[in-house]
Amino acid sequence: MQKALLIYISAILIWFPQAVFASTYIASNNPYLNMSIEDLMQVPVSVASKKAQALSDTAAAVFVLTSEDIRKSGATSLPEVLRLVPGVEVARIDGHSWAVSARGFMSGFSGGLLVMVDGRSVFTPMFAGVYWDVQNVMLEDVDKIEVVRGSGGAVWGANAVNGVINIITKSSADTQGGLLVAGAGDNKVEKGFSALRYGFKIGENVSARVFAKGFSRNDENVRATAPTTDWQDQRVGFRADWELNGSNFMLDSVAYQGHESTVSTLIIPAAPFSELVTYQSELSGGHLLASWQREGLSVQTYFDRTTRKRQTFTEYRHTTDFEIKYRTQLLASHDFQLGLGYRKTSDKIINTPTVSFAPSSRTDPFYSAFIQDEVSLAASLVLTLGLKVEHNNYSGYESAPSIRMLWKATDRQRLWASVSRAYQPPSRADYSMSHLFVSEPTFKLGIVPNQNLKSSKITSYELGYRFQPKESLSLELAAYQNEYHDLTSNETSFDPVSSFLSIQSGNFLSAKSKGVEMNVSWQVMDAWRLKANYSWAKTKAKTTGGNDTKSVFVTEKNVPNHRWALISEARLSSNVTLDTQYYVVAKSTARKIDAYERLDTRIAWQQSKKIEFSLAVQNVLGKKHAEFPDFSGDIAVYGRSYYAKATWEF
Amino acid sequence: MTSFEKALVLFLLMLGIVPLADALENETHEQIQAAMVFHLFNFVQWPEKQTAHETHRICMLPNLLAQASFVGLEGVVVKSKPIHVQTCETAACAQDCDILLVSQEEERMGKILLDAVAQNPVLTLSIDAGPLAAETMISFYNENGRLRMSTHLSKVLKRGFSISARMLRLMRIVDTEAAIHGAQL
């Protein structure tokens, strides 16, 4: 009771003086009293709408990053851009790897997050996650990134356990003409990069663009005696859009190749029993995507090819996907959607003595169907019922139902609530991979597969509130409680005959997590916008069998409890802008990562209508910090780095 | 304090931005409006009866008192008399004012007060171009990003006020010539 009173009084003491301060400051400082009446009538007063972010009518925790947000961030990769999203945790592992998560359960493969680019899933079934090192879309061509935190299984299907990230690129009609981008950095992270894109018209209704981009990056992390690693990527692509008689047709294709090196700790049998080694990986792939949309009917199909040649194993993967959706108005108050989907993913693994897959090649079809009804119960009350049913070779039939309610309390307030279920099937690696860490006559240590693994499931309860007291200010609050079942645990067993200590994935872990996310966006004045967000999360886990003694601790203490961000976007003059992001992340006990703060900034000079120069500095404060360990437990530490960039539109 | 309690305090703090934002967003607009109201005392001549007050009285409904710039005129001296700013919610109070400010936010109450002062030498002013602007002598409006004033000159003249030529040149006169001529007779 006393604490509650203390909180209440503190809030009043914080809140009230601000209003009073604003009133008295403005009242006692009116510089216009000394101006003549003629001059007063010449002073410009802003009447333009200063929208912070439109009040969303989605019954979910949604955040949209615009192309302008991406440009101002100074980020050069998708994971770095995602740091701007409240409730999304992004941590750098090394020069080309990130751990990205929403609402907990971070890993280097972003499990539990469904990530799509223009509707094409970039999820890899190999490790049930995302290879962020090959998601190098041309950021200048990204129209928006929609992030939904929380379970999204009913619409998006498998793997949308903790969130959905949908990256949407601009239509080629909106990227006409040429764009040349070139830049160089201090060699700590960025070495050099360039991109060229050209958009053009083919006839009256057809537009297209072609692009080529490439970069070379370092990994400046400071590890004792470790060599600097590098990462290169080159890609070309095109997109074409037709609009004809109410139909929209899109064709999109990209081909890429890349190379990256990774420093990791290798366990060796003799003293000192571990050594730092540099692994080289060759990456290549591409996709071809076609979509057609007319009124309520949309059809999409794509083919995706990926090759990853590592020193541990080589993966060749082909994915074919087909999806059809139909949306219609049934009766006056029912917005009805249904869809069917089919995906086939085939892989071929080249095994090595260290890592092997059995079988070494596998084809898995996924069948899905979904139905959703958005019912307007009243003018201000919308109920959405959804169900997705899927079949996969790992866990058979799965279902993901959801119920969502949105109440438009006032013109400027929204309240929503949801209960939903999602699931994540086992990964190819958990199901089929053997990884030998130590192989000596007297002792062996390694991972063995488990073909009896079940999918992990989540039941999610969410509550959200949005308030836009004025055009220039928006507040958002979301709270959740998630219940996880059959999470992956690490079960060990020892065979005395072969002296083999094996680690095998099991489903003997369950957890409950809860959290709160807050987000404020304020257009202070025409030339200055401020954003702030805060997220708090707590997880409790327990085993439901097995002999895993560590996963409970790792699950509970992996994700930092708190994360703050403050973002400032300021226009210093008519052609100079200064954008700054400040992050504070609490410690992660399980990862042995201390709390850290990070300040990134970008200053840009629009030299003319077509030319812009910018300078971006990451970690301005220069405090070296680590964010996430790699798979061998090594921790990379990062300091200040910068790059300069020129952009020319022609 | 637990993490949740810290988060709650933070959320309440974030809510506290609302009044600050509300004040800062309209800063320039309000300050210019207040400055123009201040200048009215220089360029408008009140009927002799009304000049007996010891202060220049600006009256408004409570909602406008939240507009800090008007409050900031309190005590400012013009033509040897200080300005006094007060709220008015009764006819008797409004009839004793020099300037009565109304806005569309309080349309109903504003109309009641305007009717109450219809025969009194009170300069009525609408701070926005809402429904009450047609009932007042002077109103504010925005033109191409600049603040302007318009006047029902016939109403001004009928009540015994006069506006200097310098100010009239800067105002938009919404009456017809006939109406103005009739008021002057």
Task: Name the descriptors.
heterodimer; A: 650 residues; mainly beta; 22-stranded antiparallel barrel; 5-stranded mixed beta sheet; 7 helices; 36 strands; 9% helix; 61% strand; B: 185 residues; alpha/beta; Rossmann fold; 8-stranded mixed beta sheet; two-stranded antiparallel sheet; 10 strands; 44% helix
Intertermini distance of chain A? 65 Å
* Number of beta strands of chain B: 10
- Domain count of chain B: 1
Major sheet size, sense and barrel closure of chain B: 8 strands, mixed
Give structural notes:
- The complex is a heterodimer of chains A (650) and B (185).
- With 650 residues, chain A is mostly beta strands.
- Chain A is 9% helix and 61% strand.
- Chain A has seven helices and 36 strands.
- In chain A, the strands form five sheets. Chain A has a 22-stranded antiparallel beta barrel.
- Residues 17-28 and 47-54 of chain A have low confidence and may be disordered.
- Chain B is α/β, with parallel strands linked by helices.
- Chain B has one domain (29-184): Rossmann fold, CATH 3.40.50.
- Chain B is built from ten helices and ten strands.
- Chain B has helices spanning 3-15, 17-25, 27-43, 62-65, 68-71, 91-95, 107-116, 153-158, 165-170, 177-184; strands at 44-45, 56-60, 77-78, 81-87, 99-102, 123-126, 138-143, 146-151, 162-163, 172-173.
- In chain B, a hairpin with a 2-residue loop joins strand 3 (77-78) and strand 4.
- Chain B is globular, with a radius of gyration of 19 Å.
- The model of chain B has no long low-confidence stretch (mean pLDDT 80).
- At the A-B interface, helix 1, helix 2, strand 27, strand 28 and strand 29 of A face helix 1, helix 2, helix 3, helix 5 and strand 8 of B.
